[in-house]
Known about the structure:
Blueprint: E1 6-8, E2 11-13, E3 17-19, E4 41-43, E5 60-63, E6 66-69, H1 78-89, E7 95-100, H2 105-116, E8 122-126, H3 143-154, E9 161-164, H4 172-181, E10 186-189, E11 193-196, E12 198-199, E13 204-205, E14 211-215, H5 220-233, E15 238-241, H6 247-255, E16 260-263, H7 266-269, H8 273-287
Parallel strand pairs: 3-4, 3-16, 4-7, 7-8, 8-9, 9-10, 10-15, 15-16
Antiparallel strand pairs: 1-2, 5-6, 6-14, 11-14, 12-13
Helix pairs in contact: 2-3, 3-4, 4-5, 6-8
Amino acid sequence: MADMRVNLLGHTLNGPVIAASGTFGFGPEYADICDLRVLGGVSGKGLTLNGQAGNLGERLYETPSGIMNSIGLQNPGVRHFIEVELPQMKKMGTLAIANLGGAAIEDYMEGADLLSESDVDMIELNISCPNVKHGGAALGIKAETAGEATAQVRSHCKKPLIVKLSPQAENLEAVCKAVEAAGADAISLTNTFSACAIDLEKRKPVFNNIFAGLSGPAIRPIALRMVWQAVGAVSIPVIGMGGIATGRDALEFIMAGAACVQVGAASFADPAACVRITREMEAWMDKNGVKNLDEIRGCARG
């Protein structure tokens, strides 16, 4: 049997698949559906400092080979997470990751202060959120703002810090290098792609915000390209995600150099997808005589 464990930022993950933020609740909700101990970890629902209600109107919309979402970071807030959700996450038998977003850098910093004093294992910093001090533009679009945000949060963060990047980055390699230089311990990408859908009968956009985030198999080849670029730009671990639905999909990201992967939209169609994908990776490795992921990580790069 192949050894599926992964070493990531001082932690030994049970497996290479992490449940992606916003697609798996906080984790314990799935305990009766699949064995959470098989997973490398769970990145919980995206948090903001004080919580928020999320967007009005349509929130989910199916597309060919994908799904669009406009949830609006509905969440209970950092303090509620620490007091109520985190104790249950710590019982899962796998890594507990807090995904932190916000509308202002001050919110990020205070959230990082609170999470640093909690039992969470890692913090995943989402710099794809629209930022009020930058005209509504996500902090991760420009290398300068991405680096500044990472540095400011890093100064308040005592936990291993993963920075989650947006596919809307103007220069992906530059953004990757900027967040690494600013103190990121790892990078995860890619977040959802900005997309649009029109309701023909209503003759208007499906979503109140007009644009929404596209995920699912349709984006996988593009996400794989971006992960390849990120791996080549930095020396810190890169966590790949974007449209992974099978074990073969996940292995492509590993062969491109990803330390491990996150799985998101696939869990909507198959709540046990993260475990299934892990088992499919294991079966391929056993069939092909691969003893552990280190043997094939980055092998496609030559």
